[in-house]
UniProtKB/TrEMBL annotation:
Gene3D superfamilies: 1.20.1260.10. This is DUF305 domain-containing protein. It comes from Streptomyces zinciresistens K42. PANTHER family: SLL0788 PROTEIN (PTHR36933). Residues 30-164 form the DUF305 domain.
Length: 216
């Protein structure tokens, strides 16, 4: 009798991960998708402003990467809402984010880079606990995989934004086989440690330099 009970207990423990993979009653997949679509949309808007206003080639590259990635993730999550729950979420910037966006519009140079990086790091930190719940408890494996990727990516990006705040260089893959980098800025006006970024051409020039260096 005792052996039978132990065997039953062992089978129950072995089945536990499957129960988690099928979803958790406290995790609402539909609400998470709708919330994340809006959260990402706010991030895309911040990233767009960053690309337009920063003079750092590396920060411009990071923001371009975020804009591209989160736009793709929004499209995927909207398609899942339609397929799984027969509904849609029209992306919108959360109302509580508007004062912050107006504040950023009035800044430039080093002040803009630091303030934007602080907001972006906090934006990511607020999302990480939800992404962690999702990757553990979402019903659909596609969403669990995406949440795991988002959690890892945004954790790495927080580190890069913290480096910008500290005045340190970061390295960003431009997607063209090159890397965008920049040194620290001392006076807020674009010192010698910076790569001048007069638009996307600066990032492309950095990528070309990276390719040439690797060929030597």
């Amino acid at each position: 009798m005792g052996a039978a009970l132990l065997m039953a207990a062992g089978l129950a423990l072995a089945a536990a991960p499957t129960a988690v993979a099928d979803g958790d009653s406290e995790f609402n997949e539909k609400e998470f998708l709708a919330m994340t679509i809006d959260h990402h949309f706010g991030g895309v808007h911040m990233a767009e402003m960053c690309v337009q206003k920063t003079t750092r080639a590396d920060l411009m590259g990071l923001c371009s990467e975020i804009k591209h990635t989160q736009s793709k993730e929004i499209a995927a999550m909207r398609s899942w809402l339609k397929a799984w729950y027969s509904t849609d979420e029209t992306p919108s910037v959360p109302h509580e984010s508007m004062p912050m966006m107006h504040e950023l519009e009035g800044l430039s140079g080093r002040a803009f880079d630091v303030k934007l990086s602080r907001h972006f790091a906090q934006h990511h930190r607020e999302f990480l606990p939800e992404a962690d719940k999702c990757r553990k408890h979402a019903k659909h494996s596609e969403l669990r995989d995406l949440c795991d990727t988002m959690h890892k990516t945004q954790t790495e990006e927080i580190g890069k934004f913290e480096a910008v705040i500290a005045g340190k260089p970061i390295t960003v893959d431009t997607g063209n086989g090159g890397l965008a980098t920049a040194g620290s800025q001392g006076d807020g006006t674009g010192g010698a440690g910076w790569l001048a970024a007069g638009g996307a051409a600066a990032a492309l020039g950095t990528a070309a330099l990276g390719r040439r260096l690797r060929r030597q």
